Amino acid sequence: MRNILFIGLFGLFASVLVAFKSQLNSTSIEFIVPKKWPKPIYTFENNPLTEEGFQLGRKLFYDPILSRDSTISCASCHLQYTGFTHVDHAVSHGIDGRKGTRNSPVLINLAWNKIFHWDGGVNQLEVQGINPIQHAAEMDNTLEEVIRRLKRSSYYPIAFEKAFGKTEITTSTIMKALTQYTASLVSSNSKYDQVMRKEKGIAFTPQEKNGLKLFQRHCASCHTEPLFTNTFFASNGLKMDSLLKDVGRYAITQQAKDSMQFKIPTLRNIEFTFPYMHDGRYKKLKDVINYYSEGIDVNNPYLHNSLKKPLHFNEIEKKDLLAFLLTLTDKTFLYNKRFSFPR
Amino acid sequence: MKLIRFLFLLFPVQFFAQTISFVPVFNGERISLSSRIESNGDWIEFNDCRFYISHLVTYSSGKVWKDDEKAHLIDLEENSSLILTPLSVKIDSISFLIGIDSTTNVSGILEGDLDPINGMYWAWNSGYINFKLQGKSSKSNTADKSFEFHLGGYLSPFQTVQSVTLPVKNAQETIEIEIDLSRFVEQVDLSKMNSIMIPGKDAVHLSEFLPLIFQVK
Q1: For position B9, what pLDDT does the model report?
Q2: Could you tell me if residue A336 is inside a domain?
């Protein structure tokens, strides 16, 4: 009896000590919300942001150990230099060259998003990472196998202990580490941002200025500043691909009103995130502008109300709009060494 | 569990152990989950029955005891018992949810019984599978005679979580809750419907029968 009590007290003492030690080991980081931006949805509430957690997440993001045959990592389809999407791939290929059915989304300002995927099937950032790991056309792996491999490695158990105060590796700590990295991918230093912050010596050209006006009048109700998405869903009237037969958000909600609706993507860094649309059907930004200008079938029953009146931009307006969209490029984000392959 | 036993040693008077066992039955007869049940030339067997129990509350002569655990994953083949420590001995009734509430469904990554590794979680359409029943039957219209029902979904209007209150007549140290799988199976024409793997109206329809299959012996 006394022994048990003693062991109990010792255990309690030891765990307090470990908790204290792990706190000493990890360095907390402040998540900085750009000025005048809305409050982020993801607040790190149950996943305090630390340097160790971020670095562990970054390591995992670039490590092919997550895929069944160790050939692809998250970064295979989410390349930093192109806004964390798979440049020049309409849809991406996972292991064994298996192809997915949707264009790889950018990973930009994820902390301001409530739901994820083109169909909004994922309801919180922390649980997103399970998808690519398990999906047969992506990494085709299991959580059990990932945990087994990470436990066997010489690097990870120590890194997990540093980040979370325990060597035990679980779905939870893997996903939380990945989230610390992906939620930190904030792009807020494009020319657009610098102009809005009234930074010295930075100004829109007349062309860009006119482009912004057109944008605010015709595009911003869905691609709302400063995130350049209102994070909702809509149909932009694209005809269903006859092979992919993608019904969009309907697949998740089973409700007719959601048919053919897809998540409204951010337009930040749009210069480099081609090809465009949920199935990557447009290679060039000017194709996208042409589509919205005169390509929409206004009789498409699913079409969002705001697009029912054809926009019919003239050639100058199209160029102005394009010029404005290029001001959303944020090279300090695309080339930020902190986000790149860990060396 | 170890902690509870340890607390028992420290404070023997304050806690009362109440075991709740979930027992599979078919037409009122106890079964072992994987055994084949035959009747009138048809047969059925189950190879997996797992479900979540959450928001468990016991009522004993006016006293209400609420379970601290977010949820318990019950596996009728293995972990089919819970040990609770309510503050009173005689339980009059017990209530719980079959499945996971909507708040928990949107709470990000969770641990223990709610770890997605347990196979009771949809990643592509985030949310928990509240109730999973798989097996084989002569009636099933599939090549290998299998059927599989993964019932879940928390988004309106296809919420599937169910609430149950069960009176307990003879409170004992172990309360046995029988789960009569025949009552579920008789709601389904296996020759027509043998698989539900997504939230939606079929999942809602079948989930509504779940409270009827639970009963305290």
Answers
A1: 53
A2: no
Distance, C-alpha A163 to centroid of its chain: 22
What percent of chain A is predicted at pLDDT more than 90?
A: 86
- Residue A7 — very low, low, confident or very high, per pLDDT cuts 50/70/90? very low
The total of structural domains in chain B comes to: 1
Both A108 and A124 in one domain: the answer is yes
Residues A238 and A125 in one domain: no
What is the C-alpha separation between A153 and B25, in angstroms, rounded? 46
Interatomic CA distance for residues B92 and B62, integer angstroms: 9
- CA–CA dist A84, A281 (Å, integer): 18
Residues of chain B in contact with residue A136, where contact means CB-CB under 8 angstroms, are none
* Whether the predicted pLDDT of B13 surpasses 90: no
* Residue A5 pLDDT grade (very low, low, confident, very high; cuts 50, 70, 90): very low
Spatial separation of the C-alpha atoms in residues B145 and B136, rounded to whole Å: 5
Q: State the residue range of the domain holding A199.
A: 191-331
A166 touches chain B (CB under 8 A): no
Average pLDDT for B14-25? 82
d(CA B8, CA B20): 18
Kindly list the residues from chain B whose CB atom is less than 8 angstroms away from the CB atom of residue A4. Answer: 6, 9
Residues A115, A127, single domain; the answer is yes
Find which of A10, A41, A123, A179 to mutate to test the B interface (most B CBs within 10 Å of its CB). A123
* Residue range of the domain that includes B110: 2-216
Q: With contacts defined as CB-CB under 8 Å, which chain A residues touch B110?
A: 172
CATH number at residue A46: 1.10.760.10
Tokens at A223, concatenated = 């691609």
Instruction: Report the chain B residue with the minimal C-alpha distance to residue A146.
Output: B117
Which of A140, A155, A187 is a domain's end point?
Answer: A187
Same domain, A195 and A232: yes
Name which of B126, B157, B199 is nearest A122 (Cβ-Cβ). B126
- Give the model's confidence band at A6: pLDDT under 50 very low, under 70 low, under 90 confident, else very high: very low
Q: What is the pLDDT of residues B131-167, one digit of tens each?
A: 999 999 999 999 999 999 999 999 999 999 999 999 9
Q: How many CB pairs under 8 A join A and B?
A: 69
Which of A154, A187, A220 is the last residue before a domain boundary?
A: A187
Band (A268; pLDDT cuts 50, 70, 90): very high
Interface of A with B in 16-75 (CB under 8 A): 46-47
Shortest CA distance to A146 belongs to which of A134, A154, A135, A158?
A134
Kindly state the average pLDDT of the residues A152-179.
96
Residues A211 and A320 in one domain: yes
Least confident of A163-172, B83-92, B94-103: B83-92
Tally of domains in chain A: 2
Cα B8 → chain centroid: 27
pLDDT at A164 over 70: yes
* DSSP E strand stretches across chain A: 233-234, 262-263
